[in-house]
Every structure is written in structure tokens, then in C-alpha cells.
Amino acid sequence: MKKSYLVLLLLLVGAGMAWAQGGMKKKKPLPYEFGTVTLNNYSEHAGMPPAVFDHWVHRKHFTCRLCHVDIGFGMTAGSTKIKAADNMKGYYCGTCHNGQSEFGKGKLFASCAKEYTREDYKVCVNCHRVDRSEAREDAFYDFAQGMPRETFGNGINWEKAEEMGKIKLTDYLEGVSVKKAKLKTQQDFSLTSKVEGMPDIIFSHKKHTVWSGCELCHPDIFVGVKKGATKYSMVEIFDGKYCGVCHGKVAFPNTDCQRCHSAPVQ
Amino acid sequence: MTIRFFIAAFIVLCLFLAPALAESPIKAEFDAACAKTDDAMNLSVAELNELIERCSRLRKSLEKEDETVRKVYLKRIDMCENLYRFVLEAKARQQKKGEAAK
Amino acid sequence: MNRWRFRVRLAALPLSLVGLLLLGPGKTSLADDRDALAKVIHAIPPNGPFWQYGNVVMGMRCRPVGMQPVIFPHWKHRAMYTCRVCHMELGFSMKQGDTGVTRSEYLRGKYCGVCHNGKAAFTVKGEPGSPNCERCHIKDTKGLEARFEEFAEGLPIAAFGNGIDWAKAIRDEQMAPRNTLNSRAVISQLPDKLKTPLKLGSYSDRTMVIFSHQDHFAELDCSSCHPDIFNIKKEGTRSFSMENNLYGNFCGACHLLVAFPMNDCKRCHPRISSLGA
């Protein structure tokens, strides 16, 4: 018996060595893990486990831009460098998670504190998670049960869920968001695919601006003003540039080819 | 049923969410300068320039603020100002094209 | 008796790979040397009888509750459905033990329960001990073996794996596995450019590889392989070697235990001659 463990161990070492060089299929996140971000700029230095943020919990209630434009969260994990003090002052997570905001049946827990009791610490682990929580996984599957299905990502077609009225997204937070003039949607357009026979991409400004506004993508992510001037390649997108900023880890992943390459082939 | 429940929850939520800065002059000035990002494509060059100028002034007035406020608002101003500049550039290019066509 | 044969076969894979590990530290030098390459090839897990190839034994959750492990024959299923149906649409992982299928899940119509619902195929429902249970939690594999013999009759022959040339069977329209369970799913077409087989260079011209996107696309989606297994950068897949394939990387993700195994040199290296014993 012991021998077989040794053999297994050796095999794992071998696989690990090869994995380091690529070629191994990366572990595809399970539906409830998709869009989960681990933040560890300061947590471990402060003696806390890293904060784990689930996009699915939040995106069923709020638009992307509410957090990424109005509250000011960056678009890559760790780029915002959130400090406990920021949260305690009522910014970032603390904008809502302040112990006072009413939400659903009760008040939202307060994020971060200078001092805490053993009892308080039970709140800390809501984000500073040590273990995977089965209750959380179950909560995900219970929620996903009623949502339109999708093959990739969370296994939920979020766009359709909103269309069907299954989720209603809040886009305005009093005291944080700016009262804006009504959004004038820019036109949709198609992007020609470089490979002959690959369906062209239909890009919908409408579908994007309703959740993301304008300033989330322009000019930070898409800087070109002239249509067709920037050549986007799948290599770059897979590397997390352009569309890949969102459509890799949070929005439906870029392996869902047909969602974008959707124009009929001529 | 749950949907209705959540809508009600959001309304309550919105009422309760009011960070300290809500009534400060900085937030008011930020609101004024950045309320038009969604409508930026319809602004004239003069209007855009004015808004950009307003953003720069706001940026300066932030220097005295607390670290967190600075971090949050500088990022928000960046996004809004950069969008105005982006649209301005797009407009300049369009105009050039128009002139060339004539 | 049969269970033992499975165990032996399962144990043989890690053992042979360890053998490969001990062969030498060199990454690319190995394949340069003819003898060394021959040794690499001998490290391929044993093929076993045709009817057993690609059978997956799933017992993680069965054994603790005293159930027989499930024996899943790929051959039975791939005649009716392409790889992408189960591995993309139904969410089955490509790694054994990764999916963590539970009884409550398949009873709710997930995973196996999608088809095994009493309509498309026999149902997974039933009290423990009912005859349907034994159709997957197989005690005696003789029946499975007999059904394989019947099934394989008339299909194009291959020397390894299941002894069936699956790709040819599809090309010759002897078999038309369904490519989706969703009648509204959009399945993209293979771009023309990718229809010509790719010629991939190797250490020597004799070992060059002919790769057919078309044969793979008949079973899979672009995203089954790109970019996680093969990134799409030109000459970006460094460390793409026979040895790494044998660790289950690159081609080895499928062509080790389910798709035709790598002893079938000529299927990919058409110019290769037999490599010493």
C-alpha cells in the first residue's frame, strides 16, 4: 500500500514538472468558482487570510459599472490596493458593507475593524475565508437553478437572466453615483475575423453600455478612436487584453467562441 | 416574489447608503464635472474642453484631502476626464476626415 | 477477477510513467536518441484488451457506501455523442475524479442523469439494489465484453486503443454521433484555412507530424484545446515533446487513455519506420 502512495507521489512530481512548462489543461474553474477573485495586497501581512470576493453574489444585484466606475474598484485583482482603513471610512467594500445598509432581511455586515472579539471574527471570515464553504456552494447552485443556463463560466447566461427579469440590477447608489443624463447608445458594429470562414464578430454597444457605461472601456481598455485601426488578436485577448480584461475571468469566458463570432458566414 | 422582495430591498438600501462625503463640495463638483460621460459623444468641442478643465481643477483641490478620498476620487476623475479626451480626439479625427472629403 | 484486471491496469499507468521519469533528466535530448525514444515509447501505458480501453472506473464515492464502482465505457457513448457533448455541455471534466459526480446530482438530472432519465436511456433512478444500478455499478464485466464484440463488428479496424478507427468511421459516415443536446445550440463551422492538415515539424523530417484539425473538430470545439492545452501563439508551445505528451500534457490529455493511444505512431507520424525493440 505504501508503495503505491510513493508511486503516486512520484507521478505527481513528474506531472508538476511538466505542468510548469505548459501544455497541461489548466483547471477549469467550477461554475461556483468562476469570477472569484482573491485579494491579498495587505491581508496576510496583517495576519488575516486573503479576502475572497465572489462576483456572482454581487453581479446578481448590481451593474458592473456601479462598483468599477462609481465605487472605483480596478479591473484586475489587487490593482485597487484596498486597505482596511479605506473600508472602515466607507469606501470600496465599506460603501455598502458598513454595518448599517439594509439589504434583504437585515443589515449588511461591516467590512474591517481595528479591534474584534472572537464573536466579531465570525464576520471577518465572510471575506477572509480560510476554508471553502459548502454552504456557499449550495447557495450558488440554489441560485443558479432558476437562471437561464449557459455552457461556460458560471453556467448562467446573465444577459438573458436580466432580459427575462430574473435579476434586476441596481445602477445607482445615493451619495456615490452621479446623476447622469440618459445614456445615448452608440451603434453596434461588426469586426471582420482574420481567419477566412470564421464568423465575424458582432459587437453590441448596447449590451455593453447598459452594464458598463462608457468610461469603463474607453479609453483604458479600448484606446483606438478610428474603427479598424487597432488589430485585435486572439493571442492578446487570451492574454487578458482588450475583450479579455472582462471576458476571461468574470464575464463569459473567451472560450465561448460563438457568443462573439456570431455573424453568419458569407 | 423574491424579485419584488429584492427591489424593495434595493430602495431601502439606496436610502441608507450615504457615505460621509455625500454633501461635501468635492462630491458636488465631481458630480457636475462628470455627469455627462454617458452623453459625451453629443457634446461640442468647447463643452468638452470646459469639462476637461473642470476635472483638472478638481484634481488640484483634492490634494488637501484624506488619502482614501484622494485615491478614490483621483481614479474616478481619471476615468471621466480620459473619456472626455478620448471623445475629443475622436471628434478631431472626424472633423479632419470631413474636411478632407470636401 | 475482472476487478483485479482493472486494478492492475490502473496501477500500470503510474508505474510506467515513473519508469519514464527515471529514464533521464534531459528534456529534449531524450527524443534525439533513437534508443531513448524507443524506451519512451515503451513507457506508454499498456493498451489492454480492446473492450477495456477507455473504460473509466469511478469509485471515489461508491466504495465508502459499499457500492461497486461505476465502470464507464467511453466506446459505448462515443458512438452516439461526440466528446464535446459530455465534456463541454454536460460539464464532465477530462480528469478522473475531478467532476465529483454525486448521487443527488444525477438524480436531479445532472451529469449522467441528463440522458439516463428513462427516456433517452435507462434511468439512474431506483432504490439501491434494483437491477438498473448494476448496469453502471458493474459487478460482472462479461456482458460488457460481449456487447463490445457485437458493437465493434464492421467498424474500421485500428491496431491500438479500442481497435476501432473512430475518425475513419465518422469520415465514412458509418457513425454520426450527435454534436449537441441543445437543439438551438450554434455550432460553428471549421474555417476553410484549417481544413488542410497541418504539417508540424519535428526533430527530423522522418518524425514530422500530420495533424488534422478537421478530425478533431468533428468531436470537439476550438476551446476544448485552445488556449489551455495548445496556446495559439506561433511556435508558442515550447516543451511540446513526446515525453511531455506521455505525462498527460498536450496530446496526452486525450491520447493516453481514451482517444487512440500513442503506440499508434503512424497515425500522427506517417513517415516513421518501426523503432527498434
Automatic annotation (TrEMBL), chain A:
SUPFAM superfamilies: Multiheme cytochromes
Cytochrome c7-like domain location: 52-129, 202-262
Listed Gene3D superfamilies: Cytochrome C3
Keywords, sorted A to Z: Signal
Top-level taxon of origin: Bacteria
Protein name per Swiss-Prot or TrEMBL: Cytochrome c7-like domain-containing protein
Listed Pfam families: Cytochrome_C7 (PF14522)
NCBIfam families: nanowire_3heme
Keyword Nucleus: no
Signal peptide feature range: 1-20
Coiled-coil regions listed in the entry: none
TrEMBL record, chain B:
Record keywords: Signal
Signal peptide: 1-22
Protein name, entry field: Uncharacterized protein
TrEMBL record, chain C:
Domain Cytochrome c7-like: 70-137, 209-269
SUPFAM superfamilies: Multiheme cytochromes (SSF48695)
Cited InterPro entries: Cyt_c7-like, Multihaem_cyt_sf, Nanowire_3heme
NCBIfam families linked to this entry: nanowire_3heme
PANTHER family in UniProt: CYTOCHROME C7-LIKE DOMAIN-CONTAINING PROTEIN, LIPOPROTEIN CYTOCHROME C
Protein name, UniProt field: Cytochrome c7-like domain-containing protein
Biological source species: Geomesophilobacter sediminis
